Structure prediction request, 265 residues.
Amino acid sequence: MNIGFPDEVQRFLDRNRHAEHICDRLLAKSLQVFREDHQYSLKAAEVISFGLLLSAQLTFQEVVTLAANGFGPGAQARLRTMYEFVALAAHFIRRPEDAEKFIRFQRVEETKELLRAAELYATNDDAATVHRLRERLSHLERELQKLEARFGKSFRRSWHDGFEAISKNLGWQHHFFYDYLLPNRYVHASPRQLEKRISNEEQLYFEAGPDFDAADESFRGALTLLALSLAVADDLLKLKMHGDLEEMTQGLIAAYKGKPNKNWI
Prediction:
């Protein structure tokens, strides 16, 4: 069984040699901060930020693995997720009261899932399962009414005003554009992505091979977000890494100087 594009890894590395050194430095710093033997004393909202930052480190590995194997669109989709992790971690440091909203919102998500499940099992005449689902839904409804009383009627729709608003409050409009908005075309069935696949030479056809541009730009974005995540971790954990991070940030800027973003041009 042949899966993926095994020849792509070396080509990916060759195309991105300019960023290899800074990638190694950022990963080394990430391992230092998130080592298993490190213990941090954190408040409840800070624990959520830490968990999100740790999730971002894992997502970095997912982005690079997909990109290196030729799956540029998949890497872009995970890049957007990585942005969400880092942006929320930073947001909760500034507004810790929103961290509880974020966690409590899982009750809304669970309710939506169980409502659909109840509809599905009802069509299969599975009365016992439907009864259990309805009991759970009744319990969730009581919890949601209490949460609405605390957070407002809009809580069932969303716990926040959107990632664009969060990004603006953080001053991250640049990162929002390149690491959230542009990758959005790879998350859903987007006509923008479909258009990129169309070739009209002797006849019209759809290209289905590796997407080098999306792969390389997802790597650039992931490195940027990795650096941002370490800056947020420094703010959260008071690690006094500002000097090292500033040096690595300048190294990252230098690595991509004069290289326009290929997702945009």
